[in-house]
Structure formats: C-alpha cells, structure tokens
Amino acid sequence: MSYGGFEAVRQVGLRVPPRRITALIGPSGCGKSTVLRCLNRMNDLIPGARVGGTVLYHGEDLYTPQVDAIEVRRRIGMVFRRPNPFPKSVYDNVAYGPRITGHRRQDLPDVVEQALRRAALWEEVEDKLKQNALSLSGGRRQRLCIARAIAVRPEALLMDEPCSALDLIATTRIEDLMQNLAADYTTVIVTHNMQQAPRVSDRTAFFTVEADEHGERHGRLIEYDLTTKVFANPADPRTEDYITGRFG
C-alpha cells in the first residue's frame, strides 16, 4: 500500500477466517489501519493512495475495475476509533443506510430496532430515538455507530481501535458486543491494547516498522497465527519484544 511515492506497508499476506475476530497489533506507524482500510477500499478516498497485490473477497479481487467500491463498503462495514454519529436523531442515524439502499419506509422502524438490539443499545435509547445522537455518551455513541454499520446487513465489520476513546466500562461493553456479533460477522479490529487482543480475538497479526536498504521505513507483517499462540509462544522475537513491552 502506497501513498504517492511512499510505500507505507509491504509484504502483507493473511487469510481472515469467517465469523471470527482477527486483531491487528503493532507500534504506531506500522500500517495496521492502512491494511484495515484496504479491506473495504476506504483508502480509495485518499488522494494518491494505491494498493498493490490483490484483496480477495469470496474469491474476487476487490480492486478490479468492475467492482463497485460503494457496494464493497456496504458489505464490509467500518467503525472508526472515535464515535462519529451523524448530527441527526438516533433513529435517523441507524435508518440512514437502509433508507438509501432501498428499504421500504414502513420497514425502517423494525430495521432500526433490530440493529439497536444487536448493538445492545435498544433498551437505553428506545425512548430517545428522536434525540440528537451527539447528546449520547461516548460509549453509547460507539454502539450507535455499530448499530448504524450493521443496519445495512453487512457480511463483515472492520473496527479501527473502537475503544481507544472510551472508558473501562464502555470498553467492556464494546468488547462483549464484538464477541456476540462475531457469530454473524467476520470481524477485523485494530488495537493498541495488549490486553484487548487476547480477550476478544481468535487470530492476531503483528506488524512492525523496518528500514529497507535505502533507509526508508515501511510497515511489515511479521507474524500471523492463533491469538493464543502469538501471545503465549510467539514465533518471532520481535513479536515477543512488542507484546511484553520491550519496544513499541
């Protein structure tokens, strides 16, 4: 993955298992979020961004010209590190996606309720549906963003440090929610939290930053395996150094 003439991350090859949680870990600047955004073509929105290689989804390369990037993002939803609800009501936030993808108006209340229930938020907001979403707490905003993402019935969810702006209680709720949703959604998360990855994920990919022969630094995938193995018995000493806090 390159930005202009700079290759931000290289030598990435991993297979994301369906209906499991995969964590991407590593120091700042190693390319975790860049790789995550490649998976649903969010990097297309950045001028000068370019993806090399292939990203296969159900056997089809997502970067071929005939693939519709908007449809890719509908099928592979995304939740960002800072809760970013629209400046609209709670109801309109969740209804937005289904509305523009053609759901009938009379079906929207059920779609909204179902998404909010899946996001473990319905009981907290059922009497606040007309309230501006920006008035919610940070944890509720993030769960609302998850409800908004799943309301269009994606097949996968990408989460870029979804708990980094939240307190411990809100983080616990989001982690519980991620694990509950994993039964239905293939999930990939980026996290800096070395306790979070083993708590929630099935597989873990460790990235780091290394200099090439010209002294230019690039992100690189070092190790990808079952989370239990990566944290208990990493194959690469660089992985062990990072997860034990010796660097990063």
TrEMBL record:
Residue ranges annotated for the ABC transporter domain, each copy included: 1-234
SMART domains to which the protein is assigned, alphabetical: AAA (SM00382)
Gene it is expressed from: pstB_1
Molecular function GO labels: ATP binding
Originating organism: Nonomuraea maheshkhaliensis
Database matches in InterPro entries: AAA+_ATPase, ABC_transporter-like_ATP-bd, P-loop_NTPase, PstB-like
Keyword Transmembrane: no
Organism lineage string: Bacteria, Bacillati, Actinomycetota, Actinomycetes, Streptosporangiales
Protein name, as recorded: Phosphate ABC transporter ATP-binding protein PstB
Keyword Protease included in the entry's annotation: no
Keywords: ATP-binding, Nucleotide-binding, Translocase
Highest taxon, organism lineage: Bacteria
